[in-house]
Write a structure and sequence with these properties.
By secondary structure, the chain is mainly beta. The model is unreliable at 111-126 and 765-770 (pLDDT under 50).
Length: 770
Amino acid sequence: MRHDSPHIFGYTDRFSARPGETLTFHVSCENLTAYNADLVQLRHGYTGATGPGFLETELPSAFNGSYTGAWHECRPGSYVEVPDPGGLLRGADGVRLHATVFATMPLNERGSSLGAYHVTQNSMSRRSAAQSVMGTWDTTSETGYGLILDGGIPTFVWNVGGDAQRLALDTPLLPNQWYELDVTYAPGDGRVTLTSRPRDSLMNRLSAQAAALQIKSATTATAGSLLAGSAPFRIGASTASTQGARLAVDVFNGKIGEVRVNHADDIGPSIAAWHFGKSNREDGFLLRDVIDESPNGLHGTCINAPTRAVAGASFSGLIDDFRLAPDEYDAIHFHDDDITDADWPTAFSFAVPNDLPSGVYAARLRAEGAVQHVPFFVLPDTRAKKSVALLFSTATYLAYGNDRIAFEADGAEVIVGHTPIIDPEDLTLQDHPEFGRSCYELHNDGSGVVFGSVRRPILTLQPKHRAWFQAEGVWGLPADLCIAHWLETEGVEFDALTDQDLDREGVALLDGYEVVITGAHPEYVTRAEIEALDQFTAGGGRLMYLGGNGFFATVSFDPEQPHLMELRRSDGGTRPHQSAYGDQRHATSGERAGLWRNKGLPPQRLLGVGFVAQGFDRGTHYVRLQDSFDPRVRFAFEGIGDEELLGDFGIMGGGAAGAEIDCYQPVLGSSSQALVLATSAPMSDAYLLAAEEIFEMLPGLGGTEQVSVRSDIVLTALESGGAVFSVGSIAYTAALSHAGYDNNIARLTGNVLRRLLVPEPLLDFEPDAG
């Protein structure tokens, strides 16, 4: 949808590239006819007066210059498209269609608000009453055929001799019930028959409504062959032909499975028999390719990443791994608001020069009244690594990408303890729901969003973006730029890495680094990332965890489409929504969804601390503990007084301890040999103990009453010579720049970094003789 004010939107094909590789940029202009593009290095994001301000450095580039602006639409909606070069699915001689359907919005009305945040949903566009199950129906020319729901009523539409025909049953399907739908179009005997029957499935068998459901059938006379048209065969969408494009319309909301196309007489092998629970990959992952088991091999392709690895009509409830019981997972969940690739044309490309240092960059797009940054990361030349690597939390950026929680969460004020703060980009995002939702929100049908993608405009990724939950908060990329600029002031050069890179390359990516520093909020990571950092520290590497709520929950990257990230929610711990049982395993990795602590890899084992509480009213300071006076860690507190309050300042809530916080917990794996250097002052009662810490509902869960609601600074030395320094607070890095970096948080962090860069073993953990 378009609006009156000028805007530029853009994205790149992926987050990172090495020297010699090429990135593509995709740009759309709203109410603008031209724009300028320039390469800039991003140095600091926060624009408030209490910090260094927004800092970028303009750089020469082959793409710098002026470009003609054009408007390109995002078209949400997921479906499967099936190439049919031989016309086997045209149905001229008749056809029989079969599918099971589980319609989540059969009337195509707004879905109910579910989940911890109770997010209400805006329609992505003017919604049609029709939803397509399958077929070649072209809504523009009214040619081909289609099995659809029209106002929830099973309907077959077709064209004979240039006249559009339709056959409909008399009642709509009930929501969230499995049905079998069958259509037979037999021009030889002059009949069309449409049947709907409730499916005897686990979900229906336990429903009181299912017992009263009746088989519905209708038959009508017909004559002549189908007017086939030229629309492709699609599952989950119909086609609208306009200006040479074949747009997907009437997108289905809900699950479709067991899709078969047979000859009208049902004699002979199927024309097509797609199995949504099977894969042609050795690992069995269910990605974009859809397998046709018929002799014709009419394999399909998923568009806009509908959700696979979901329980189908035959689900028994006994096996939660789709690879072990593929017949029970013969289903795909489609949504009319899925968007994982805007599919805009390439505006310009950037071949990363061999001499461009590793770091954070952006294509800056400017015109009168509009500016937009498209950030990306340049990886190091593997032959010239620096001593320090900064691991940017790109998985977390995608999880929160385009979140609208400030506007659409019932009780947002309760979550943050004050009126939400609105950034201009948040207002723009409200005008552009077609850019897609974050993984913290719900689809229009009430199911949770499980995919995040680089290939769409992500307005929350702007380097100046401010978090909605704190008056001067930084979140995501702007928060991690606080670390980048602190390193610059320390005179420490660093290489930029991303979650996608570490997941793909493993510990080999970390070879040669002495210190790896995390971002402020590395909440979402893959198993490969945890294993890589564990191997890195076990091999003598040093890790600085400068954040909170880190290494918390599971994500996966699609091995064929690495710009696509999957994040499902399980039935335990802090979560904004939850996938249904049977739908809680990642299609892209086979990983069980959920918190790493619930899968045997609690962050305490790697970091020494783990998530315990969150609150957004204000932050607080740290106080030094007895371990901080141990002579073995004297280096960390050089220039810091014995009684100094650490971090009673900062641009995020006024204190270095706050937002989302972690504490030392030996019961979950924090090392007994770790030194707990400092702990936070008491938090307010806006900080509540995390759900995964609560086994019974008891009073006293707030920060003023619950001793576990705290942030701890911990230093752990490993026998390998490696070490881990953890601060356990998202707000920590937002305090680094206070007073021009002349403060005790910057001093403490700098002292530790300089010592970690010294190769000698960090600490001797024999009892202190002094």
